[in-house]
Amino acid sequence: MKKKRVVVGLSGGVDSSVAAYLLQQQGYEVIGLFMKNWHDESVTISSECPWLEDSNDAMLVANKLGIAFQTVDLSDTYKTRIVDYMFAEYAAGRTPNPDVLCNREIKFSVFMDIALSLGADFVATGHYCQKDTITKDGKPIYRLLSGQDASKDQSYFLCQLTQQQLAKTLFPIGYLQKSEVRKIAAAQALVTAEKKDSQGLCFIGKVRLPDFLKQQLAPKQGPIISIPVAQVPQLEPHDTPGEAQWKALATRKQYQPEEGTVVGTHEGAHYFTIGQRKGLAVGGTAAPLFVIATDTVKNIIYVGEGAQHPGLFHKALFVAVDQLHWVREDQQLQIGEQTTVMARIRYRQPLQAATLERTTDGLYVIFDQPQSAITPGQFVAWYRENELLGSGVIA
């Protein structure tokens, strides 16, 4: 009987290395594929995550396991789909999530197409998440589940996957703890066994983000304005729940310069994001300053003093209808429907109790408790128990 073929995205890290080994042990024909998506080392801290070292480690792992290995250069596609998008979002005052985009636009799109062209039955990655299959109305439905290691769960990064993509995807290490993954790698004498986890932008590595953005977004000096607590509106503008209340709760106040005090200057509002503390270079305050709003048109950063400044907190957010995505298409809400879920607005944030309310224009996510630093351009993902049901870009 012919073995089923799996193409593994070998990144040069320990997780994908062990994923390839486990699949081999399960009887699959395994092919390792390294994706070169970035090679501009002028903005990369090369000692942290050089692509050349990663490629070499991936090749060494493939040789050790005795599996076929290829490298593909997807840098042009990566620039178009990820980097150009990032620049446009930052210029507009939003904060994109390149890791989610990488998975949607590269790993489970271009990479998957290449894998299938190589005759793959499945593709596999080293993500800490799980998948299972249920049957509904006689048809298979693929569920995207949290990883067994709660501290490493990466389901959030896969929140834009489709049923068609999940049908062809395997997550071999999703049931393991990180410590177990390293033990397996060490037992097999894989070169990546003790390698540090990569940090920074997906496929680029650890970068100096301001230097990266300055490639296309020129510095432009502007004021940093501190907003006093008294200028922040109350969180509960209506007594009766409904769309008017959700809209009011999800709408961010547009601050004006005269509402605060100039406390410093910056090099460009498009370099900053909601909730940011580092890089402001403003001293002399009783508590640290946090960015509570940016205005890229007027080139102004608004800040609040202290991590509990009310300008950081909102109880609701909105996802426009064209940015709404359901992993579980059979669970999507119809206009006027609502449901309770657990949701997160950033990776590793503990899940928060929330209500989804579907309207004509999109979806409101109303949290039981106000959330800090809800950031336009980021992704909100919602779960039921340990299953990720859907996601969307925060407006």
Biggest beta sheet summary: 9 strands, antiparallel
Radius of gyration: 22 Å
The average pLDDT value, as a whole number, equals 92
Global geometry: globular
Output the CATH class name of the largest domain: Alpha Beta
- For the record, the CATH architecture of the largest domain stands as 3-Layer(aba) Sandwich
Number of helices: 8
| Helical content (DSSP H or I, runs of 4+) | 10-25%
How many beta-strand segments? 18
* N-to-C span: 51 Å
CATH superfamily of the largest domain: HUPs
Structural classification: alpha/beta
Low-confidence stretches: none
What's the gist of this structure?
The chain has helices spanning 14-25, 51-65, 75-91, 98-117, 163-167, 178-187, 209-213, 243-250, and strands spanning 5-9, 29-36, 68-73, 122-124, 129-136, 139-146, 169-170, 222-226, 261-266, 289-295, 300-305, 313-320, 324-326, 338-344, 352-358, 362-372, 379-384, 387-393. It is of the alpha/beta class.
Give structural notes.
The protein has three domains: 5-213, Rossmann fold (3-Layer(aba) Sandwich), CATH 3.40.50.620; 222-311, no CATH class; 313-393, Elongation Factor Tu (Ef-tu), domain 3, CATH 2.40.30.10. With 395 residues, the chain is α/β, with parallel strands linked by helices. Helix 1 crosses helix 6 (178-187). It has eight helices and 18 strands. The protein has helices at residues 14-25, 51-65, 75-91, 98-117, 163-167, 178-187, 209-213, 243-250; strands spanning 5-9, 29-36, 68-73, 122-124, 129-136, 139-146, 169-170, 222-226, 261-266, 289-295, 300-305, 313-320, 324-326, 338-344, 352-358, 362-372, 379-384, 387-393. The termini are far apart.
